[in-house]
């Protein structure tokens, strides 16, 4: 499955960590990198410049826009190993002062973002979409005169990067690129309120605003209107050095997103758009499940590799459809045969015959058809739990457990090692089953699992994201789950294999109490 020939990755970033921030999702420290000649994990920063010109914003919707720009690296193409194209987006809408003891932060270039971590569009869950793109509270950390970091303020805003690592043609040292930016808020102006030689100008604005508020004795939440949006690239050279994003990134022109288009009444759907879409499954969909909607006649402006973001509605009254990842728009994609489609989540409370319509970013209806919505099949009492291993993660937990076969298969396609079904769990909280909480560490990209509500609450307090519970630990499970901790990497591993547990314990892992059991067999 292809998304118009592009692999788009995003991660949230935390402003206020002196240089560049800390990436969220599968993110690393700002100075992390690969290919370091000294083995330190920090690549050599190249002095070779690059330039960005003719930056423009096109196809502006309510939540999306395409940022297009020319780029040029001042080195022959045969000296370039890879090019990653990047757009960062930052906004601040308010700040709450907590402390101010000066700001002795040092500006400088760092290999950040390094295009080595993040969440691809095809991997997004509803929780991750909001975690990466949503406006939320952040901590602002500054450095005092002794060189120690301290928590200076809390602020609210958006803060994320979008990057494309596989769009370079492998033969050019210049060209034109268009980076699709999603996750934008409707009727919002995105702008640069401070232009800097590095994409950390927002930190200095925040620090200056905080200093003034502190001098004025203001300690309550105060509205702000700050923004930063830059376009650029990161390039790896054949000599092992890296040209970092801040070496030549350029500000993106101000733009304002549109209001979300209102869905047309069913009676007003144009007759010439009837059956220009076809719903997979012979027009039968399942309530609460994803439906694939094929576009029979894709409009010319979406042809080729152009990124398009549409809207879907289901009737009687027009109810807006969301993407499976929770996005308020539907991304036009292409399957392996080149057929255009969107994926939409059917509301769980609908059954019977309904009409589905698709509209483009302007609200113009592109197609509509009728569908039959079926009730979902009765839920199984037991469900398979799959385990995957990510060999590229160097800290935190590099194993993931999931009951979602689509998530499992998708991660295997991205390079994770699938370890198949490990055990079976209860599919609900019936008969005294306990929820297995799934938590996500935004700083290293790992996941943790626990049935301990207090442990869950403590992790949420320190910044972990609580994701939806999808499996439960049965009260009558016949297989004990062993929990082991690796003090060197910070990983927690869960296994029902006593031999695996004993082997890891012999290697220095700490055996902990998981507090739950599972089923060794399915129903």
From TrEMBL:
Cited InterPro entries: DUF5648
**The entry's keywords:** Signal
All copies of the DUF5648 domain together span 366-473
Q: Which domain of life is it from?
A: Bacteria
Q: Where is the signal peptide?
A: 1-27
Q: Does the keyword Signal apply?
A: yes
Kindly provide the name given to this protein in its UniProt entry: DUF5648 domain-containing protein
Give the source species: Bifidobacterium vespertilionis
Q: Tell me the classification of the organism that encodes this protein.
A: Bacteria, Bacillati, Actinomycetota, Actinomycetes, Bifidobacteriales
